[in-house]
Amino acid sequence: xxxxxxxxxxxxxFPIIKKFLYSxxxxxxxxxxxxxxxxxxxxxxxxxxxxxxxxxxxxxxEVTLNAKKKxxxxxxxxxxxxxxxxxxxxxxxxxxxxxxxxxxxxTKTESEMNAIIGHFGLGFxxxxxxxxxVEILTKTYQTRGENKGVRWECDGSPDYSMDxxxxxxxxxxxxxxxxxxxxxxxxxxxxxxxxKKYCKFLPVPIRFGNEKVWEKVEGEKDKDxxxxxxxxxKPRIINNTDPLWKKKPVDLKDExxxxxxxxxxxxxxxxxxFWIHLNVDYPFNLTGILYFPKVxxxxxxxxxxxxxYCNQVFVTDSxxxxxxxxxTLLHGVLDSPDxxxxxxxxxxxxxxxxxxxxxxxxKKVADKLETLFKDTRPDFESKWDDIKVFIEYGIISQxxxxxxxxxxxxxxxxxxKYFTFEEYENLxxxxxxxxxxxxxxxxxxxxxxxxxxxxxxxERGYDVLLMDGILESHFINTLEQKLEKxxxxxxDSDTIEKLIKKEEVLPSKLNExxxxxxxxVIEKQIDSKKFTLVxxxxxxxxxxxxxxxxxxxxxxxxMSALGGGGYSFMGEMPExxxxxxxxxxxxxxxxxxxxxxxxxxxxxxxxxxLALLAQNMLKGKELAEFIKRTTGLVG
Length: 635
Hints:
Layout: E1 2-5, H1 13-20, H2 27-48, E2 61-66, E3 71-75, H3 83-106, H4 114-117, E4 131-139, E5 149-154, E6 159-165, E7 171-178, H5 188-198, E8 206-221, E9 227-237, H6 254-264, E10 274-280, E11 286-292, H7 299-302, E12 306-310, E13 313-316, E14 331-335, H8 345-350, H9 352-375, H10 377-382, H11 384-397, H12 402-405, E15 410-412, E16 418-420, H13 421-428, E17 439-444, H14 451-459, E18 464-466, H15 472-482, E19 486-490, H16 496-499, H17 512-523, E20 531-536, E21 545-548, H18 551-562, E22 577-582, H19 586-593, H20 597-614, H21 620-634
Helix pairs in contact: 11-15
């Protein structure tokens, strides 16, 4: 037996490794299985090169839980190790790396720890985060010489022991004796959860116990005449060793992509809209499939759906900063050996390969969308309401994406017609330029609530866009910066004459004294803190009272509510509206002639409530009183 002391100066190396090696202790299982996969893959390579001709029929990695003995073991049938290799790779290289890790630790904050782990090859020592003792049983694939089995043991102190073992089969088994503070890992469901999270697409079969399944008995029927089924136990293989993203797109059908989507997200019942299969081998390696899902109203719910892998080993599903922010709304898988496995997300974000991959993904997404638009425009338009949030988000958050997106980004009007930016400009340019030569894009955010305003501007020959998405305020703001001499304004943000200012101005039928007289009566009926009273000379056909809301103020409040834009202070400001009095409407003139002050006030209240009703602002008690008053007038 060989006994020794790990060559480290720091006596408390294991407590520090246990506390800081990884932020999530469950990673230990991923690391041990990744090592087992590496050992198995190396054996496959040797066999392919003709340097090993032993039995390769079953390379399954076995994960075994013994709750009674409080042990977890990970056993592979890979290349194994000789005693000299154990001494070199376990006792010398890894522990010297561990000592260097400790030295680095002394100068790093806790948040910086994960960013340096990848440089030290400490995956095996993650086992000490959950174990009071670790054993290694190993036997090399090499048959020459006296290569007997090796047993190594360490209890988390600098002391270890190593001697011969009676292991006869090729490969390595790591046995963890679980510490009292890590008993959660002795629960079968907990281990299964970890395995499915990190290992479900590893390239070597991984078995974890058995599972019960129902199997048909060939040629036998039950009493109801159906095929007879019996419950049997079979090995539980937790991973798909040949995931779809590793296959060639030409060999796949739409059904294959949809089936794999539900394999990734078993509790999602909707079908993806379409997908992009990535397969790049230069200047970096990247494979993957990105799906465009139907996006719900809450963007945050959709994030953390892209799974990031390194050689089929799960890394993270928190890819913000690794892929462009707007693409975090996509679903799917990315796999690249050029993405470091054992480092933090902050490290990944600064990695040059990751930045190249991020840029490439953006390009591929833009290519796909442009192709779909050109080749299948009717189908693209039919999906627009579901995919527009991706494109709008990209234009808002990534300036260089706009140059590509402007070719396929669509604007939809209230008549359900779709236009590219260029097409829409050509449509409205003849009628919707104001007196200063600025092109005005009119839009509605709620077709039903703003119906009256929409109809009024359409009667003037103007077109109205429907912009009812969750990002529209930010999106409009961005477009105003991109499109030359163009301004967006909602149809209810001002009177029709001011939405698109022309040279002609209608004269008012009320003089200043008459306006002052009406103003005094109206101001007694409204909340002066919420409504600003203004007189406008509108067409006689326009309503006597209109309620409008300043475009800038409303838009900034909406942007503040959604987040971003630098207008957070706007969210604290109270709502403010204009009450526009149409001085040319005949009813306003009749108010001046009404001798009964009480009746005059009732008419004003009725007209004001009608204006509120048109903006869907009349609710509760005020609505009930309006209905009662209206019923009385009719009676």
